[in-house]
Amino acid sequence: MGGHGGDVVIYADESKDTLLDFHKKGRYSAKRGGNVGAMGVLSSQLHNGLAGPTLRIPVPLGTVVKHKRGKLLADLALPGDEVVVARGGQGGISLLESPEHKKKKMMAMTPNVMRDESDKVLLLGQPGEEVSLQLILRVVADVGLVGLPNAGKSTLLGAITLAKPDIADYPFTTLMPNLGRLDGDPSLGPGQFSSEATLADLPGLIEGAHLGKGLGRNFLRHLRRTRLLVHVVDAAAEDPVNDYRTVKEELRMYNPDYLERPYIVVLNKIDIPEAIERLPKLTEEIRKIGSDNTDLQTGTVSETDGPCEEKKVKEIEEYPRPHAVVGVSVLKGIRINEMLKEIRAALRNCRDDIGSS
Ligand SMILES: Nc1nc2c(ncn2[C@@H]2O[C@H](COP(=O)(O)OP(=O)(O)OP(=O)(O)O)[C@@H](O)[C@H]2O)c(=O)[nH]1
Ligand SMILES: [Mg+2]
């Protein structure tokens, strides 16, 4: 028997967080099984071709592997997760020493035969499997930062984690999600670092994003795994409350479950005089949007990524209110600690929710 052809395995690689190089199309195929020996050479040591090596393809943590037709193969959400997507071909079989009738029988079964002039026969190794797959990245993060372009999401991520996202004073600076790691709160003492979390800074959302405007809806799926949302609002903008509503509306249109999740609102840029002046009023207005009636009946995570238009859609006012509203300047480092306290408290809260249900 010849060696088995190489399989193709896709595995989650934690060090692979650069999503960009992942977006090019790749073509890989499982290898043909090893042939047995070489034609015409009667040497038993050549009867065993080597097994083909496994082709291992690293992808970022959180990659969902689907068949082209949509069937889910694997969700590589944990480091070490892997899936065999294509089997290498079966190895060839030598019939060199087989009796004549067996040769005939085997040869009748397959066209995959090689023979030489002295009628020595080999069945060739089979070609490996070929599959077409769709790889979708859904980042693994506890916290999702959402907001209009230019609100300061990336600046916020850079201010509280070691991440170094691109920051600029034009919209759509962020094209792909950036991830950063927030440490637990040391003041809680040993074993209490329960607020450790991964934050995902997403591209800015604009009105109509769910229909494909701006950078569209493509990245909204990255919120799927988050437990907490942080709305970043530019408090110095013309109409911050309207901006905030726009973002909520887009989230709702994409997947209303996103509005059921716990969230806090960060009113950013309070280093700017106009922003600090209106902060109390803004805070009050934003706190009021939403309902106290946190019935959990729709709090389940939907199994689909896309919009759930069939669902009974509620008004923004009917979804839960923010856990907290904080005014900060992530650029100048004003009230960062208050904001961190709220993020950690909200995270602990959702962890408790999970624990008790
Ligand atoms: N004055 C002031 N400017 C800020 C503050 N935070 C962010 N900025 C500025 O706002 C601009 C946008 O910041 P980003 O962090 O790139 O905004 P973003 O929300 O990530 O933007 P997109 O990636 O386009 O969605 C930059 O010029 C920042 O320097 C702040 O607290 N105060
Ligand atoms: Mg950004």
Features:
single chain, 357 residues, alpha/beta, Spo0b-associated Gtp-binding Protein, Chain: A, Rossmann fold, 2 domains, three-stranded mixed beta sheet, elongated, binds guanosine-5'-triphosphate, binds magnesium ion, G_OBG, GTP-binding protein OBGC2, GTP-bd
Description:
The chain folds into 2 domains: 8-135, Spo0b-associated Gtp-binding Protein, Chain: A, CATH 2.70.210; 139-356, 3-Layer(aba) Sandwich (Rossmann fold), CATH 3.40.50. Helix content is 21%, strand content 19%. Residues 18-24, 36-47 and 296-303 have low confidence and may be disordered. The longest helix is centred in the last third of the chain and has 21 residues, at 336-356. The strands form 4 sheets. A 6-stranded mixed sheet has the order 11-12-10-13-14-15, sandwiched between helices. The protein has a 3-stranded mixed sheet with strand order 2-1-5, with no helix packed on it. A 3-stranded antiparallel sheet has the order 4-3-9, with no helix packed on it. β14 (263-268), α5 and β15 (324-327) form a beta-alpha-beta unit. It is built from 6 helices and 15 strands. It is an alpha/beta fold and 357 residues long. The site of guanosine-5'-triphosphate has 25 residues, from α2. Guanosine-5'-triphosphate binds next to α2. Keywords: GTP-binding, Nucleotide-binding. Residues 1-140 form the Obg domain. GO terms for molecular function: GTP binding. Belongs to the TRAFAC class OBG-HflX-like GTPase superfamily. OBG GTPase family. Residues 141-348 form the OBG-type G domain.
| Helical stretch tally | 6
CATH class division of the largest domain = Alpha Beta
Give me the Rg, rounded.
28 Å
Find the CATH superfamily of the largest domain.
Answer: P-loop containing nucleotide triphosphate hydrolases
What's the helical proportion of residues? 10-25%
Largest sheet: 6 strands, mixed
Secondary-structure arrangement, i.e. CATH architecture of the largest domain: 3-Layer(aba) Sandwich
User: Structural class, judged by helices and strands?
Assistant: alpha/beta
Q: Which outline best applies? A: elongated
Q: How many individual domains?
A: 2
Distance between the termini: 55 Å
